[in-house]
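Contributing new complexes? Match this layout with adenosine-5'-diphosphate.
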Amino acid sequence: MDDADLLAAAREALDGLILPDGIPLLEAKTVSGPVLSGGRMSLAISIKEAEAAAYSDIRAKAEAALRAAPGGDGAIVVLTAEKAAAPAPPNLGKAKTPAAKPPVLSGVRHVIAVASGKGGVGKSTTSVNLALGLRALGLKVGILDADIHGPSLPTLLALHGRPRLGKDRRLRPMQAYGLEAMSMGLMVDEETAMVWRGPMVMSAITQMLSDVDWGELDILVIDMPPGTGDAQLAIAQGTDLAGAVIVSTPQDLALIDARRGIAMFRKVDVPILGVVENMAHFVCPDCGSQHALFGSGGAEAEAARLNVPYLGAIPLTMDLRTASDSGQPIVARDPDGPLGMVYTDMARTLWSTLDAAPHSQQKTLQGV
Ligand code: ADP
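Output block (do not edit by hand):
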């Protein structure tokens, strides 16, 4: 079947579905799609924030209909809401409402976020290698790439194909190097996601958490979208995080962003588990000498200043870059090498902090 046939089949599958306001889904101006991009079917329904509960049933029905149609495996339907004009209340973090959804992450002991104030500092590289370090400790580890606008997990872990749907119509994470992995990049192609606004990103991530059967995990590592906007805040609140790791490069400018990240998590009462200084110094592949290209020690000093744990420094090396970009993360490729050991040591420190914390009970996902 070519794309036109698949789209026709998708429209046929959606025929007869009616939105809560009585308008047939296929005729509604508030609906964009179905669209088929990169082999994946998606559809968005634009709603008012207050209508989320009323539309959850039709969202699920539309998604089930698309997934049952030819070529619809892994189809996704998202509700998007324009943000209310009023600024977020200052006590956002304290106002944790009771879970509006079933405790979908109840099999996960700890959910942690790896975040950075801005992109390109090595957040995803750190997430993957920390996750593998945790795995090397014998833990059952999942990793969720929530970086919708620049999903890198498929590259970093060489994930190919699409996630499988279980009999219960929930997605199964993919397996890579002993990790359970899921990425927005496996569900929606980058061009589609590019135009998504904050609320759409939030609802897509929430759905990805609840639509995926993570099973029993010791820890789920969320590779956060870069920045400190609404989407990040929503994930930080909606997933009842046990803590966050902040990745920064040593320059002042990056540290200003990292500080913002730390402030955001503090605002929602998420403990900072540690700061990682990435690209701390350059190791020359020819002579092995070290050069502090971006200065050094900035993140460590900042961590001390802000009274948060410092987890350690990762050098800027050619090996790390080629390993990451070829889908063979350094901890998987060379666990006993110097970098493999740095990441595994960081993972050990992280795990001992987490396991000692009282916050190790069941996680619940709140409605966004
Ligand atoms: P982010 O998730 O913050 O956008 P990435 O982890 O995707 O950043 O890294 C951006 C680029 O930098 C990638 O090509 C990655 O391989 C490279 N990179 C990250 N950390 C290092 C490092 N310590 N040494 C060398 N290259 C690195």
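Reviewers usually confirm one structural detail per submission. For this one: Residues 32 and 261 are 33 Å apart (CA to CA).
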